[in-house]
Specification:
The protein has 8 helices and 10 strands. The protein is of the alpha/beta class. Helix 3 packs across helix 4 and helix 6 packs antiparallel against helix 7. The two termini are 12 Å apart.
Length: 255
């Protein structure tokens, strides 16, 4: 919402989703494609973070296991998608549906990667236009597929690897583009930083920006998130974001 995009949220939720659905309504986010699965609970995650920002996550999928009941074709006028951790069958189906429809999409396996074999991950990569992982997931992706980062990058338009405080690395157009991370005002809570980065990434891709600009906006969004507790409690206007981008990177963007 900070970047004022026009997203469609496609998900499955349980009987306990009422308060969050109300929040989506308050934020003006459409939930036409948020499917209620009666008799289930919404997916739950409990994340323990130490002072070095290492995290251990306990997770129960709940209604998320039924994500395959949703279909990409249910949403009209989609021009860009992202397949992030979801139910196993849902991720497989949605990647195939994006590919068959000719809609470019980001494959973001995240903590869902252990659900898939190396060959299945290669299938995702072959269908996707973009792949994004963190440094730990990048190592796992290489181990499971038997492919190097260069080999993976050759199969997609761009491979994006986030490196925490060390920024990110974008493999695109035969180059490796190093993206710095702006120094945050405070290090409060890393939960949701990857999601904030991906919001900037999707915004830049949708706008058709070059990879340096796209990566820097994504990095800025992650840096702002880490200074706030909770995944959705930081608030900035688009003008403020543009000013902060100029402050950190020396050039102005139009969001």
């Amino acid at each position: 919402m900070l970047l004022e995009g026009d997203p469609y949220i496609m998900a499955t939720v349980g009987d306990d989703a009422g308060p969050y659905l109300e929040r989506l309504d308050k934020l003006g986010l459409p939930r036409d494609h948020v499917r209620h699965i009666p008799g289930s609970f919404t997916a739950q995650a409990f994340i323990t973070t130490d002072l070095d920002d290492n995290q251990i996550t306990a997770f129960h999928p709940g209604a998320m296991s039924m994500s395959h009941l949703n279909h990409v074709a249910d949403a009209n006028e989609v021009t860009l998608g992202i397949v992030s951790p979801d139910g196993r069958d849902g991720m497989i189906n949605h990647a195939r549906e994006f590919s068959e429809a000719g809609i470019p999409f980001v494959f973001d396996p995240g903590q869902g990667m252990p659900m898939f074999s190396g060959n299945e991950l290669l299938d995702f990569i072959e269908q996707a236009n973009f792949v994004t992982v963190n440094d730990y997931e990048a190592k796992m992706l290489q181990d499971k597929t038997g492919k190097t980062l260069i080999e993976i990058a050759q199969r997609v338009t761009a491979l994006i690897i986030t490196l925490g405080a060390d920024g990110s690395l974008i493999y695109a157009d035969g180059k490796q583009i190093a993206i710095p991370t702006p120094k945050p005002k405070a290090i409060v809570d890393p939960t949701g930083c990857g999601d904030a980065y991906r919001a900037g990434l999707l915004h830049g891709i949708q706008k058709g920006w070059d990879w340096e600009t796209t990566g820097r906006l994504a990095s800025l969004m992650g840096s702002l998130k880490i200074a706030s507790r909770g995944g959705q409690n930081h608030k900035h206007t688009r003008m403020e974001l543009a000013d902060m981008y100029k402050h950190h990177f020396g050039s102005r963007i139009t969001l």
